[in-house]
Amino acid sequence: MMYFSSPTTIFVFVSVCLAAAESNTTYPQAKPALAVNFPDPALVSVDGVWLAFATAGNGRNVQVAASASFSEHSWRLLEDVDVLPDPGPWAANDRNIWAPHVYGLEDGRWVMYYAATVKNETSKHCVGAALSTNVLGPYSPVKTPFACPLDDGGAIDPAAFRDPKDGNLYVVYKVDGNSMNPGGGPCGSGGLPQDYRPTPILLQQIEEDGVTRIGEPIEVLDRDEADGVLVEAPSLFYSESQELYFMTFSSNCYSTEHYDISFAFSEHLTMPFTKSSYPLITTQTGPVTAPGGADMTPDGKFALFHGTVGQYESGEPIRHMFAAEAMQMGTDMSAWPIR
Predict the structure, then answer these.
(1) Which is more confident, 278 or 237?
(2) What is the pTM of this model?
């Protein structure tokens, strides 16, 4: 394992306003890019249009939003689009699709990775893949899961990444070990910390068809005591100025104010990543409550993420989408909400 001295990379999110919450609690916020429940957004740019894909909601397995300009608050929900009507024969038909990620393949097709509840084992999710000739689908699911380590808790939060150094294609995802933690509680945090299971982030190389795995996945990150019950929501980008790979990820439980966005770095994509000694953005530093589920563009210049703005009567958080612009200068990086 390679270790590096603490980086001087700094992520700064500046609060610009307060947004009203959708519950009895008031949550300080930056201005949301999309003021609807839209968790775990993932970015793709197509023919000058930005698209974001998100966790199930609004009667769809996968939500989609679009904007002609990333730098303006012009995102709109595409309510008439049903990109993944069928998650596949292995998945439960319960509209419980999490954290989809879409990637354009070299042959002109599009692949969508997503986490779906496993049929006959609905306490766990696995990662599926689906293909389409149109970025807005409909996507046809592969008949078997892409990654399904049920004995370790299942798998969630997939994201594609092409290594700019050698052109190889990868999918990074989380093994959902906390789904098997004893004691219940939010995200499996009800038991003793020493009983928390690993939640490793795995990197899987794939063929150009987007669905065929090459070899076995490689562990590049895992939770430690500072991360609480889990790490999840990995997103990779390569910084040419620093000649380093960066991974953003979330720690702690999404339904608590301890949820955050952190980052790690590595000189080599397939080697373990070293975590920064400080998180990227937290509830305490603002301007978003329980920030998480960030997705960076491949060049690290833009990001989408969600933040909690209230609660439903069920207690589940209402999570709006926020946008940020990022800039690298030597070994430093700053990022701020789009105004």
Answers:
(1) 237
(2) 0.91
